[in-house]
Amino acid sequence: MRAKLEALMRSMNLQEGSSSGKGKKDMKDHKFWSTQPVPKHDEQITTMGPIEPSIPVDQVSKVPAPLPKEFEWCELDMNVEKDAKELYDLLTLNYIEDDDEQFRFDYSISFLKWALQPPNWRKEWLVGVRVASNKKLVAFISAIPIQLRTFDQSTLMTDINFLNVHKKLRSKRLAPVMIREITRRSHINGIFQAVYTAGAILPKPISTCQYFHRSLNPKKLVECGFSRIPHKWTLARMIKHFKVPEKTSIPGFREMQQKDVPEVRVLVNKYMERFDFAPVFETDQDVEHWILPHKEVVWSYVVEDPKTNKITDMISFYSLPSSVIGNPKHKTLNAAYLYYYATDVINATDNSKDDDDQEPPKLLGKRLNDLVGDVLVMAKRLNFDVMNGLQLMDNGLFLQQQKFGAGDGYLNYYLYNWRCPDVDDSKVGLVML
Question: Between β-strands 386-390 and 335-343, what pairing exists: parallel, antiparallel or unpaired?
Fold first, then answer.
């Protein structure tokens, strides 16, 4: 299972045509990135702030970056079904695929609408490239606004995602042109910093997080060729090992509702203060969009104290299935991805959290194990086959106990035009889609 998952994960990068994050190149080998305001691989960073100064918006070029003559720029409107379907087809057929061409990420149209239309989204930031002669969509890049805190500084940035070029056009070097164009469009709106992730090692990650995977349906994963039965194990033993309880265990554990949004925003923002690299949910609308359950896209649960009716905990995951290619028995692998969570147990552990010599707070570890255990119950009940997660936030307190297996895949976090000291994976609070 893990090898296939890592092959998919490693393909998520901003280096056109690359699907491997092995090794660091010299800056001279990164011809494009050496022209951009990003740190060098060997640069030791102790201060924080812009690499290049912002320029007056009226001095930003109004002319799009030049494309090869056979292509033209376009903007996609996710509220127009034709545009949404074109993007779905482009990503489904060209975006993320494992090395053996057995599995391919299958972002749903509902997922893409959710990911690309948060509060204050802009149509001009959903940038496509079409073939001029037949108007076929062959490339795409997106930006959405994000309020990101790096240590003690909160900055409005763009979150860059879904950079994809049709497989047959990878030699055209469209990706650097698209990055320049989305940068120009961000600058026009007065935003001069960005955040992005990549499986590839580019100049220069501020943090690197390892992937972990928790089997929920071992039999199906084996039948798909996604998992292997461990040496000296039987399938029956494997199924027993990964079995989850039938019912949740925390009193007051329930699905999040609209009325919970204000309390959840306070709870999540307080929890995010634990981390050095984290989003800020500035409005209730942010929480309503990103965390409130969206049908078939994101599931969120809260714990409502039976005595006080106060929301004490929240945990969520989103759905990103993969198509199973050429398998006679299964067409889809249903994967859940651990998303944001928060608990007010930190109020009782704040005094010890900064002491590096102490063991992880037992109270927080127990609570997170209970929460994740309950969300695994819900994911299994919803027929997910596997739960994926990264080694970030406080995940180290529960991954092993909840039987997540360490994978070979890693996700690198990057900042554009923002110098920032390295961040330990346990201090990363941003979960990227």
Answer: parallel
Q: What is the pLDDT of residues 194-227, one digit of tens each?
A: 999 998 899 999 999 999 999 999 999 999 988 8
Amino acid at 408: D
Whether 2-202 shares its CATH topology with 208-427 is answered yes
Q: Please spell the DSSP secondary structure of 326-373, one letter per residue.
A: T-SS-SEE-EEEEEEEEETTHHHHTTTTT-TTSPPPHHHHHHHHHHHH
- The answer to whether the CB of 27 falls within 8 A of the CB of 33 is yes
Residue 364 structure tokens: 């927080």
> Closest by alpha carbon to 91, among 327, 335, 381, 320?
320
Written as six digits, the tokens of 45 are 């960073």
Going by C-alpha positions, the residue among 286, 227, 244, 255 that lies closest to residue 407 is 227
The 3-state DSSP class for residue 287 equals helix
Name 337's Cβ contacts closer than 8 Å, sequence gap at least 6.
Answer: 317, 318, 319, 320, 387, 388, 389
Active site residues: 433
CATH superfamily entry for domain 208-427: Gcn5-related N-acetyltransferase (GNAT) (3.40.630.30)
CA distances from 300 to 75, 264, 315, 319 (A): 32, 11, 6, 12
CB atoms within 10 A of CB 292: 18
CA distance 131 to 137: 7
- Note down pLDDT in tens along the chain; length 433 residues: 444 444 454 444 343 333 333 445 555 567 899 999 999 988 999 999 999 999 999 999 999 999 999 999 999 999 999 999 999 999 988 886 655 667 888 999 999 999 999 999 999 999 999 999 999 999 999 999 999 999 999 999 999 999 999 999 999 999 999 999 999 999 999 999 999 999 889 999 999 999 999 999 999 999 998 888 999 999 999 999 999 999 999 999 999 999 999 999 999 999 999 999 999 999 999 999 999 999 999 999 999 999 999 999 999 999 999 888 888 899 999 999 999 999 999 887 554 444 444 445 789 999 999 999 999 999 999 999 999 999 999 999 999 999 999 887 899 999 999 999 999 999 999 999 9
CA nearest to 361, candidates 351, 349, 370:
349
Say whether domain 2-202 belongs to CATH 3.40.50.300. Answer: no
Report whether 150 contacts 48 (CB < 8 A): yes
Domain positions in the chain: 2-202, 208-427
